[in-house]
């Protein structure tokens, strides 16, 4: 029992223990139990290991950077339209230089703080539920999932477009099915495979643009970067193209439960992804627009292949075409992964039936993957610009809720344990969210009437679907994951308020951690103990070590000063218990 590699930890119940208390753990899946002797006089919150249940491989830093890169970008493929819509290179270059400051950086910072505070697969659904309740959490999850599926419907089509433009319609449709099913199977085989595949695809897809940039240097004329014809600017298309190429930073949060040491890994991965995305846009764009005197009307999807031909020759054109096709595979894999794990996380929260939380032997949510793949197939008939406008509108509504949740949690739950916190006070954090919020509103205002109707229909479906799910859970029409465990007959309590247990105060919040939406209560109470015990605020691990009897004899996490990873592991388990019950 000394080696905990490969074991799966499960939260237990909270009990005022005395010497010789026997700790028992049970799982819903197989009803097996394991017992351990616990010799302590302190309150114990045990996280006991169950034999025979192997932990799934975790995503590390480099694969996470690659997944974030493909969630947001995938390379310069698709940004050509920004030159055309902007009436020349100037607005496109300015957009990709300044938009990250107004949009990408704020979204990435908010994601870093909230994803490490709530390292669960539901991601932004958890944030919004914690701030505004499960109804709005469900709505945001539905909008963002639908937006993600629409986005993913683009990539098999774009893959075929880059490979050939002459495939007959009778063969094109089966090809779309075949590509979608093949990529879905790769997603089913495991997140670690998808992650390392994304690393390889990113290296392969970006390599020709490094060559392009080097070859273009002798031909670059900086004055070409300043060209713009304002009479030909299509502002709606311009803003939608910019927004589409720089959004989805929050999607990685739906993988938070699968990331190794998320409190340290997420901020680093988001920073690395930010540098990679901006570089992958600006370097090829500066090279292509500075070295060639192309008309803005020539900059259509796939034009970078022609740029490669004019600068480097046919070999570079072919390399860029193949890289573009492969990049679409990476985009598909990253998007489907986040969409599927979001549904899995929502199921764990009790918002969706338990079947969406079921995992394959590879640790992947099979039913969630199949549902996302089905949506991709049904939506693949839509045009490129239609999909971009529709998904941007739904995504914008969800992001407004996320920014509002970020500010609300700062105001209402200041004591939340935040492993990473945006280094700004509440006022300046609000100011940080203001520019991207205004940009979101602008994108929505520029939408066509058709987009309003389609998005309105999706929103209406979400409003109807939530009460149906609630009734299905209440009336037991179908099994849901988040069922409160029964009280143990020998006096076990259902995770009573930590503060009242530790300070011998009246326990007034017995249901806080067993209701369906007490999100972050446990972390808030743990943080508030610092004030009640007047201990050093920077020594959280020592606090937990002293006041929670967590001993290696029962395979619990031991909290010692400066062992932050253990502290964060414990808090992650505590969060998981709050959400699962």
Automatic annotation (TrEMBL):
<keyword id="KW-0813">Transport</keyword>
<feature type="transmembrane region" description="Helical">
    <location>
        <begin position="269"/>
        <end position="291"/>
    </location>
</feature>
<keyword id="KW-0472">Membrane</keyword>
<feature type="transmembrane region" description="Helical">
    <location>
        <begin position="421"/>
        <end position="443"/>
    </location>
</feature>
<comment type="similarity">
    <text>Belongs to the amino acid-polyamine-organocation (APC) superfamily. Polyamine:cation symporter (PHS) (TC 2.A.3.12) family.</text>
</comment>
<keyword id="KW-0769">Symport</keyword>
<dbReference type="GO" id="GO:0005886">
    <property type="term" value="C:plasma membrane"/>
</dbReference>
<feature type="transmembrane region" description="Helical">
    <location>
        <begin position="390"/>
        <end position="409"/>
    </location>
</feature>
<dbReference type="Pfam" id="PF13520">
    <property type="entry name" value="AA_permease_2"/>
</dbReference>
<protein>
    <submittedName>
        <fullName>Polyamine transporter</fullName>
    </submittedName>
</protein>
<feature type="transmembrane region" description="Helical">
    <location>
        <begin position="193"/>
        <end position="215"/>
    </location>
</feature>
<feature type="transmembrane region" description="Helical">
    <location>
        <begin position="449"/>
        <end position="470"/>
    </location>
</feature>
<dbReference type="InterPro" id="IPR002293">
    <property type="entry name" value="AA/rel_permease1"/>
</dbReference>
<feature type="transmembrane region" description="Helical">
    <location>
        <begin position="362"/>
        <end position="384"/>
    </location>
</feature>
<keyword id="KW-1003">Cell membrane</keyword>
<dbReference type="GO" id="GO:0015203">
    <property type="term" value="F:polyamine transmembrane transporter activity"/>
</dbReference>
<keyword id="KW-0812">Transmembrane</keyword>
<keyword id="KW-1133">Transmembrane helix</keyword>
<feature type="transmembrane region" description="Helical">
    <location>
        <begin position="125"/>
        <end position="146"/>
    </location>
</feature>
<dbReference type="GO" id="GO:0015293">
    <property type="term" value="F:symporter activity"/>
</dbReference>
<dbReference type="InterPro" id="IPR044566">
    <property type="entry name" value="RMV1-like"/>
</dbReference>
<feature type="transmembrane region" description="Helical">
    <location>
        <begin position="86"/>
        <end position="105"/>
    </location>
</feature>
